[in-house]
Amino acid sequence: MADQQTIRDFIAGDTKAFERLFREYARSMQLTALGICPDTDVAEDAVQESFLYLWEHRRDIRPDLSVGNYLHTCVRHYVLNHLRHEHIRREREEDIRREMEWTARHSEDEAEFEFRLQAVRQMVEALPESCRKIFVMAVVDGWGYAATASELGLSVNTVKSQVKIAYRKLKSNLREHPGGACLALLMWLCERG
């Protein structure tokens, strides 16, 4: 544990005190990071970024602060944020991949695509008003059942029933409409919500 004089010197900007803190805590911080994420590059970045943050904010530190606890908390936050961002990045990559695959499977000229999109829009517009409003909000706009129910002052079961009715009517209309790509287009629009 760093002594109070080292911490006071560090706060004053003494680089030798900073080096002493680094030598004292860097290895245990790296082990903390590796315990959360076994990637050594991430662990090294977490340690470096934590010390950089500590240096940049040294004037805000109280001399009685437990620097070790502070640094280990910084490392944990860095690694957890890194993992969260990686998870989001992978989800976005998967969304993009799915859209590219759909586009490749359903490649058609733009005029045909617009024609089919307009057909789907007309089918949705032909739904009864309250059913359409609930379907668009819950499915197309992606609000989900609970949020739609809350926003419209309805029960979740009412929203589920109306969405089920909308799907049934749309499916029936799609059977009568030429070109199976309309169904794929509708499903794609709903997935994007």
Question: What would your notes on this structure say?
Answer:
This protein has 193 residues and is mainly alpha-helical. Helices cover 81% and strands 0% of the residues. Helix 1 packs across helix 2 (15-36) and helix 6 (129-140) packs across helix 7 (144-152). The longest helix is centred in the middle third of the chain and has 39 residues, at 67-105. It starts with a helix and ends with a helix. The mean pLDDT is 84.
Short descriptors:
elongated; mainly alpha; 81% helix
Q: Mind sketching the topology for me?
A:
Layout: H1 4-11, H2 15-36, H3 40-56, H4 67-105, H5 110-125, H6 129-140, H7 144-152, H8 156-176, H9 181-192
Helix pairs in contact: 1-2, 2-3, 2-4, 3-4, 5-9, 6-7, 6-8, 7-8
Poorly predicted parts: none
Q: Give average pLDDT, whole number.
A: 84
Helix share, percent? over 70%
Number of helical regions: 9
Our measurement of the CA-to-CA distance between the termini, rounded to an integer number of angstroms, reads 53 Å
Number of strands: 0
Series of secondary-structure elements, N-terminal to C-terminal: HHHHHHHHH
Most strands sheet: none
Q: Nearest-angstrom radius of gyration?
A: 28 Å
Structural class label: mainly alpha
Q: Indicate the proportion of strand residues.
A: under 5%
